[in-house]
Amino acid sequence: MNHPALTHELGTLPLDSGERSPHTVPPEALESLARELQTCRQLARADQQAYGEHGAYAVATLYHALYLDQAHDHLGELQEWLAQRAHVEPPLRSSLAAYQIHSYLRELVLALHYARHWAMLSASHHHSRAAADAFEYITRLIQRAEVLSEHAGRAYLNAPQAQFENFPR
Questions:
Q1: Are 150 and 15 in contact (CB under 8 A)?
Q2: What CA–CA distance (Å, rounded) separates 136 from 83?
Q3: Is residue 137, in this structure, part of any structural domain at all?
Q4: What is the CA radius of gyration of the chain?
Q5: Of 67, 80, 139, 147, which is closest to residue 108 (Cα–Cα)?
Q6: How would you write the pLDDT of the chain (169 residues) with one tens digit per residue?
Q7: Is residue 71 domain-resident?
Q8: Most buried by CB count within 10 Å: which residue of 44, 129, 160, 163?
């Protein structure tokens, strides 16, 4: 299936140009995700400070922040994994890297869905501006992470078969 290039804050990411691109995602794309995730975490902390003790549904602020921390951990683990392999091979040019990026982003997106759920509850129960803003930021972050995950998945699918010959079966 052909997909047109998607244009958003990360720039243009050709998802299926018909060519076998050696890059799974632009390196700066993960850095951009990390920056936006940090903004979400700051909003969650503000929500937690305002409503975490005496809010009508105080636990929502806790889980909102905890799931964003999980997402942050998944992204940090991915970036660390890629950095550790930078001297061995170009880190974003292998089917293994594509698979790892796709896998870590899947876990990140799942954590973001839970964080967004709890941000929604806090925004609703506390009329929290920080939680409502976080809901919007998280929604965009999920969309961006999904695009990158799909791009990595396509890079894995399009990897030359020779890369898989030595994989354990």
A1: yes
A2: 30
A3: yes
A4: 18
A5: 67
A6: 333 333 334 344 444 444 434 456 777 899 999 999 999 999 999 999 999 999 999 999 999 999 999 999 999 999 998 888 766 555 456 788 889 999 999 999 999 999 999 999 999 999 999 999 999 999 999 999 999 999 898 888 887 664 555 444 4
A7: yes
A8: 44
Q: In whole angstroms, what is the distance from residue 13 CA to residue 34 CA?
A: 18
- How many domains does one find in the chain? 1
CA distance 88 to 94: 11
Stated pTM of the model: 0.80
Q: How many CB atoms lie within 10 A of CB 31?
A: 12
User: Is 6 a member of any domain?
Assistant: no
Count of Cβ atoms closer than 10 Å to residue 37 Cβ: 25
Q: Which two tokens stand for residue 81?
A: 């994994």
Calculate the alpha carbon distances from 115 to 19, 24, 39, 66, 143 in Å: 36, 26, 13, 8, 14
Whole-angstrom distance, CA of residue 78 vs CA of residue 27: 12
> Nearest-CA neighbor of 27 among 95, 93, 104, 99?
93
Let me know if residue 45 belongs to a domain. yes
Boundaries of domain holding 108: 25-159
